[in-house]
């Protein structure tokens, strides 16, 4: 996974749509992440995105984002 170089603060994560386009997503816009069975991300504005990554992968990237941005340590 690549969020940002070690000395930079990550502000977004990369995810892959089903047509293989890579997009960059601000995780603070995520409302829910569901496996239906494909992974669907619902944003706070109501938009939805179907992605190739699993729910677990998206959550892992969001946690890494929080660690880098806010200095959280998730155990």
Feature tags:
alpha+beta; three-stranded antiparallel sheet; 75 residues; two-stranded antiparallel sheet; globular; 1 helix; 5 strands; disordered N terminus
Would you write up a description of this structure?
It is built from 1 helix and 5 strands. With 75 residues, it is an alpha+beta fold. The chain has one domain. The strands form 2 sheets. Strands 3-4-5 form a 3-stranded antiparallel beta sheet, with helices on one face. Mean pLDDT is 85; it is low at 1-9.
The number of distinct structural domains comes to: 1
Which ranges are low-confidence, i.e. pLDDT below 50, for 5 or more consecutive residues? 1-9
The DSSP helix count reads: 1
Using the CA coordinates, give the radius of gyration.
12 Å
Strand content: 25-35%
Extended strand count? 5
Q: Which class best fits the helix and strand makeup?
A: alpha+beta
Quick structural gist:
With 75 residues, the chain is α+β, with helices and mostly antiparallel strands.
Write the layout of secondary structure elements.
Layout: E1 13-16, E2 22-25, E3 30-35, E4 39-43, E5 48-51, H1 55-70
Antiparallel strand pairs: 1-2, 3-4, 4-5
């Amino acid at each position: 996974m690549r969020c940002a170089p070690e000395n930079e603060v990550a502000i977004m994560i990369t995810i892959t749509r089903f047509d293989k386009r890579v997009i960059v997503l601000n995780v603070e816009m995520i409302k829910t992440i569901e496996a239906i069975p494909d992974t669907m991300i619902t944003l706070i504005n109501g938009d939805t995105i179907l992605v190739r990554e699993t729910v677990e992968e998206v959550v892992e990237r969001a946690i890494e984002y929080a660690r880098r941005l806010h200095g959280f340590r998730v155990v």
